[in-house]
Structure of Beta-amyrin 28-monooxygenase-like:
Amino acid sequence: KLLKPKASHPNLPPGSFGWPVIGESLEFLRCQRGGCPEKFIRDRMSKYNSPVFRTSVLGEPMAVLYGPAGNKFLFSNEGKKVALWWPSSVGKLMGRCLVSKVGDEARSDKKMLMSFFNPEALKRIVGVVDEVTKDHLRIHWEGKDQLEAYSTLKQHTFDLACRLFMSITDPQLVSRLADHFHVFLRGVIDLPLNVPGTNFYRSKKAADSIRKELRVLVKQRRVELEKKTASPSQDIMTHLIANGDENGKLMPEAEIINNMLNLLFAGHDTSSSTLVLIIKYLSELPYVLEKVVAEQREIAASKAGGELIQWGDLQKMRYSWNVISEVMRMTAPVYGSFREALVDFTYEGYTIPKDWKLHWSACTTHGDPDYHPRAPTFDESRFEGSGPAPYSYVPFGGGPRMCLGLEFARVELLVFLHNLINGFRWSLVNPDEKIIYDPMPIPVEGLPIRLRPRD
Ligand code: HEM
């Protein structure tokens, strides 16, 4: 398939399939590890002088669509010309759940999950997020002169996801799940070779162990729901156990467990990676930090005697959110994602054959100087007023497959920033530490920072 594109498709986009089997995967990954995923795309865009080019990565023939026009095409054609696609390792490890489903099935799962992630539902949990964040900072940050920010933040976002998605408070269970997850993550985007010794094999075993733990938890919650010692609105797990879809059909237990596994996967590394980037950028931009401090101190001052952060307080954090948005523009936490062609179609005069994979790139879009003037410069004022043009700022994707956790992430990030700013000053141990993508942006040394209490 890779080497012999169909003769009936003479008008393929310009580009190269690279080497047999591996295609151009090595260059694709080398650019990520070098901290610059967009280089792979930019180099080819200028070489072929075209808004779309062909390549082969992850063992698949692929068309890469450039910029806001490409994003608009892919996001608005979901279920028509294209559908969400993830490398086959993802589907094999996750089993049947939102990310491995398309069309009506995906829509139904997403609707059920969204009832926990919409702003109305999130309003109720802001205080809990604040409480968990304060506990985390007290236990892991207070009294320390130095710590490694990335691993510490990863622990925080994982704890928070366990607590909020499944009401898990037992630290031993959280720690067992975290250990399994550590192994699981290494094989998620890998060749799906289920033979001992491979990352995928270890990842599959870890996923089985996580499922086993979650199965026990589901049984426990069913009993608690019956006894009314748990409520259907306390977390996503109980919500899914107790509530059916719009036709009243309950989600099968195996799918509840798969969806929980997927939410833990999608919802903690993305946030910890973003938090570590926020800390790094703020350390390098004292004039921005000063304004964030002013905004956050004013909000803290309005809270009498340790009152927890509420939804309304988050709406006042406008400047801080612009700063976080600009951090995600400068270094997109998710470099982009993939779709699959459902039919042969034409894009910009080129034929894209059915079954080809498609890639949209947040990194490349965010660095486009036509849409983001002086793109390499940090400028949070880009988000004032109506902000960037449609489809030119896409850290959470777009269309029907847009990130489900975007509002939750906003709560998590702002609440953390609020508590960090009000409690601590920090500086980077290694100001030149590089950020690489693996597959999310991470500082190569884990971002060690020196800490002092703010006052
Ligand atoms: C800063 C943090 C985050 C970023 C940058 C981010 C980014 C993304 C992106 C780019 C996608 C793919 C969209 C597409 O293909 O069009 C996505 C999908 C998804 N995200 Fe997030 N995400 C974040 C946090 C979260 C959190 C906290 C959760 C869970 C609560 C979450 C759950 C999901 C799920 C379930 C999907 C799949 C949606 C679908 O297939 O319809 N994400 N996210």
